[in-house]
Description:
- This protein is α/β, with parallel strands linked by helices.
- It has helices at 29-41, 55-66, 102-113, 133-141, 176-187, 204-211, 247-259, 278-285, 330-339, 359-369, 402-412, 434-440; strands spanning 11-14, 20-22, 45-49, 70-75, 78-82, 96-97, 118-122, 145-149, 153-159, 168-170, 192-197, 216-220, 226-231, 241-242, 264-271, 289-298, 301-309, 317-318, 341-347, 373-376, 380-386, 395-396, 419-421, 444-447.
- A 4-stranded mixed β-sheet has the order 22-23-1-24. Strands 2-15-17-16 form a 4-stranded mixed β-sheet. A 4-stranded mixed β-sheet has the order 4-5-3-14, covered by helices on one side.
- Strand 4 (70-75) and strand 5 (78-82) form a beta hairpin.
- Shikimate-3-phosphate binds next to helix 5.
Amino acid sequence: MTANPAIQRPLVSRRSGALTGTMRVPGDKSISHRALMFGALSLGETRIDGLLEGEDVLRTADALRALGAEIERLGHGAWRTVGRGVGGLAEPSQVLDMGNSGTAARLLMGLLSTHPFTSFMTGDASLTKRPMARVTTPLERMGASFVLRSKGRLPAAILGTNQPVPIEYRLPVASAQVKSAILLAGLNTPGRTTVIEAEPTRDHSERMLRHFGVEVVTEQLSDGALAVSLTGEAELRARDLVVPSDPSSAGFPTVAALIRPGSEVRLPGISVNPRRSGLYETLTEMGGDLTFSNEREEGGEPVADLLVRASFLKGVEVPPERAPSMIDEYPILCIAAACAEGPTIMRGVGELRVKESDRLAMMADGLTACGVKVEAGEDWMVVHGTGRPPRGGAAVPTAMDHRIAMSFLVLGLASDEPVRVDDGSFIDTSFPGFVDLMNGLGAAIGEG
Ligand code: S3P
């Protein structure tokens, strides 16, 4: 099921009519990685329903199998893990290839750093450009050692320690991946491991650890920061769970429905975790008609059904402190902004430069090629919408980045002329079935 990186898949999208109907958005990527990892660390059998079967998550499954966990696919989205207990993973005989996935790479580095063996990790041409020192620096303080390529990049050798020491670590960048890597290392470390975050990032690790019976304590400090702690040599009790639909993936049909007149689209069972909901807050402020109903809890995560109706959007200023709750959603927000009236101002978004691609540059260049006025700096961007869909008509490079590809395909549904993307194959990392599901609502996306 692994994509062949040599085969590109050009795609094109054309202006469509109204989008209507119901889409079952695939499972949340962040939660799916964690479900497999925590299942592999627990004693006993865990059944996972709604697992995202995207390339990134399949890499995590393969790596955990190589580390000795039993992981089996039972049917569509239904998986079973039999874990080895905290500290029970075995030395892999092969290099762990994490493909395109930063989450898989960084969380596994945390996990492996407190296992007393050496493992080797690599990734594809996108992942091997991304910074890893942000995880290896705190993990070295816990006793692990790493050999990395220049600028802290993969491939890496991970020399796990058999005498881990707990740390208290203040995150220098708002990153749930770094927080989770440290907490995963802390699970097999005697004593209390604490991560302090100035800006709250997604809390799926904390929620899921609690679901598996681990006590995770969250305290607000006097300076407003959050301290997240757990006591190591913990035991995870296997427990079944259901993965909600991914709010990041849901952003694509949501924006498509907002910008195509007459649209009405239902997206049931979307995660409404407040640490992930920044896009929805912003789109509502822009005038988007979004209705959440039937709010409930599944596997420790809040979930609701979303109804989206086409709307006239206005540009807004997005507060920088909202960035962690919508960090993956800026590319699709840029598309909404390009169709809105007036400027949309995004500040404090420098992290976008180190995602699957330099997303600030990719969005600025692609939108400019589609006739949109954009200004961008090191950590900010302004998209000037005119209140009507842009010209389009460009062939946009995607630099192995699934979200850049999906964003520009959504733009093509509204623009005057078709929008082409050079390679849609990476869409499978997070949103398998994207083209068919979008076309099922009435979109016009085809091979390019
Ligand atoms: C993720 C955290 C975010 C996000 C990524 C998934 C996670 O990355 O961009 O897609 O699952 O923890 P950072 O931690 O680098 O912000």
